[in-house]
């Protein structure tokens, strides 16, 4: 397969400018601004010599204190998880009702869709996933059983009649006590697609403006673009849904560019009056690209970890295959959303770096399910109310089986969290509290942190032996020299 991308040679200078690492000062300014707009004055992102950037405490943090709630730059629910959980496509809150969540899941199961762990792609196993889990600490059993629904599970499950499932979905069947777990109503996509749903008009509009208007497959999209998008999405679903995230990045950069251009045209009218200097279109594209320029490091096919079943002598051909896969995906995306003004964004170099950014920096997106809360609540009811309610709800729990507690799962990129460096004895962790019911990353401290101290998290299971830790961290491209590693180094 030909992986020479014409755009790469035609726009070599522009691509080089987009990929040039920002100066330490530019990095500092960007994060100062970001922390200010988020009113997050207790943290500071600093660029310190060889270490690169890191997050530092601007005050003393007590043990167990909230350090950061980080709004994602871009994220997506795993395609396979969409059958299990209906969430807002922008903030990832659960929406609809307890009945709708249960009915919808059983409906998809009755059609033969089987719940999965949602994370079927090997590369994503290496995202910064280890720390973040559903809000409550699950028992060992639950933890293991979440997701994967094997044949034996299916046999154990009670099958409910279709009309019962339907009445759950259409709101005719109301479960006892479900009013204690009300969820926001489902708002449809303004473009008329059936794929995305929202918790509010403001989430629908924000998603539309940031990326979905280019990627929507609804009736308002023109036919040729819709068909091209469909091919791109099918390819992503069949290979790796990291491409869907990359598409969101490209789309949001194009849309940001367009809005900058629009306000720039307005400014120009003013400038002409005052004889000011014009700013070229390309510098607007650089501006739109800035949040991404802070994050990428390496090309995907260079940083992806070698799967266990690929020996080192096949490494070159494996990496070439990955590059070809990215090229194929890029061509499909280009057919769907190409924009002449933003042509350099459709180069393989840029695409490779964007996907590489997800490969190296992602945190799993996890939001605990209210359906789990609901059944726990029923289980905790006092006697004899519990028995009464249980008589009604038991068949639904039996129909759901172990999957009743499946949480919303996806992948996202969080700009501030991604600046946090690794330590094998971290002082903070990504951990959702009971009240954290949306897609933001939540970082809390594990011990007292003094002012000026660096805030660290663990990218891996820090309880593993030294050798295994270093092997896992090698996938992130560094050798860990944390205190624990220095002590344990043989
Ligand atoms: Zn929302
Ligand atoms: Zn849509
Ligand atoms: Zn270490």
Automatic annotation (TrEMBL):
Region of interest called Disordered, as start-end residue ranges on this chain: 124-148
GO molecular function, one term: methyltransferase activity
Domain annotation SET: ranges: 38-460
PROSITE patterns: SET (PS50280)
Gene3D superfamilies, per the entry: SET domain
InterPro entries: ATXR2-like, SET_dom, SET_dom_sf
Comp. bias intervals (Polar residues): 124-133
Name the record gives this protein: SET domain-containing protein
Organism the protein comes from: Aristolochia fimbriata (White veined hardy Dutchman's pipe vine)
